[in-house]
């Protein structure tokens, strides 16, 4: 029954997408609360001023890398599952999911060991100062102990959404986020644990989410289930998962790279206060970009399923709908960011120095946000249809090829700290246009020339 209900080759395309996208968007928004709520509370600690917030900002690249490895398995395996389901091969879809899970556990253990061993030099490399290192160290030591929880909840939840169970996927993160919101003030203020309390609340919450995911994927309600025979790694499937998952991985890896370069450059040209401002701006970006991620992730199972079923007209309709909604939403957020930058910053910290620096920086940083949303929409299409090479290339283009070099060069060319924020705006404009235009001419238009099975059946 569930399989028939989640047949995306039938019914309205917008309805199919929104049935997944709305709960996934809510889940994505709630998901950022894990770290953003931590930063809001820590940004208002009286004794540490903005140092605790800055310390978390220094640790953010490590968190982004961990999430990247989760995306390597989740965004690599889930679209392949959707395509296999569209082809009518549920057995292959289960084997892909099982291989992704095993890969996830191996990578999670390796990442945990690596960062625990090299934590101190990495944090200093990522922009820590003697004043902010204790905060970053306290947070990361505890956070790394829950890496496997983070990996399982983030990496396996896409396989729930790929089966059409958007509400169950939403509950994965809502369960953990609700626990995090409750536990944060208890550990941070009531038990006076500060940064350590924020990290402890996060890993407990992610642990609850991980249990929820595994309970569903091994239960009777799932269409595709985690089964022991499917957990044995097979090189052919691992290659396919990794090839497609590199797109999501490089999104996080390049985000981490740019955060490191930004923190180091701002530390050199402006000091801890500027690193704190960038932490706030990155937090706002995480919150407001989540609906775009939710929409693109919600459209991927629909696109992939119909692509596997050779319903190409429906794939094109899904692309048009997801891009249109993305553009409208992004324009609304851009207007809010330009009109009320001070109000947004005060959510995290009301220091006069932070406000004075943050308002112009935020306006520059988000000046070309609309074009960044076009990149996310285009890249989502590449991923959803299994176009791994294009997805990986555009993951690297905006951040690694454009943003990171400009972040170093523009300050050297006389722009100082302003150059760091201008680099982001330039990368949004160039990277976004390049990705979207390429998607249009290499995917959308060619699909219109392919024979559609639905048309052939009615001929």
In short:
This protein is an all-alpha fold and 459 residues long. It is built from 18 helices and no strands.
What's the structural blueprint in terms of helices and strands?
Blueprint: H1 2-5, H2 13-43, H3 51-86, H4 90-117, H5 119-125, H6 133-145, H7 147-162, H8 166-190, H9 194-217, H10 235-269, H11 272-308, H12 312-339, H13 341-346, H14 352-365, H15 369-384, H16 388-415, H17 418-447, H18 453-458
Helix pairs in contact: 2-3, 2-8, 2-9, 2-11, 3-4, 3-6, 3-7, 3-10, 3-11, 4-7, 5-6, 6-9, 7-8, 7-9, 8-9, 10-11, 10-16, 11-12, 11-14, 11-15, 12-15, 14-17, 15-16, 15-17, 16-17
Q: Report the order of strands and helices.
A: HHHHHHHHHHHHHHHHHH
The average pLDDT is: 86
End-to-end gap: 30 Å
Total domain count: 1
What do you see in this structure?
The structure is a single chain. The protein is mostly helical and 459 residues long. The protein has one domain (13-448). It has 18 helices and no strands. The protein has helices spanning 2-5, 13-43, 51-86, 90-117, 119-125, 133-145, 147-162, 166-190, 194-217, 235-269, 272-308, 312-339, 341-346, 352-365, 369-384, 388-415, 418-447, 453-458. α2 (13-43) packs antiparallel against α9 (194-217) and α5 packs across α6. The model is unreliable at 455-459 (pLDDT under 50).
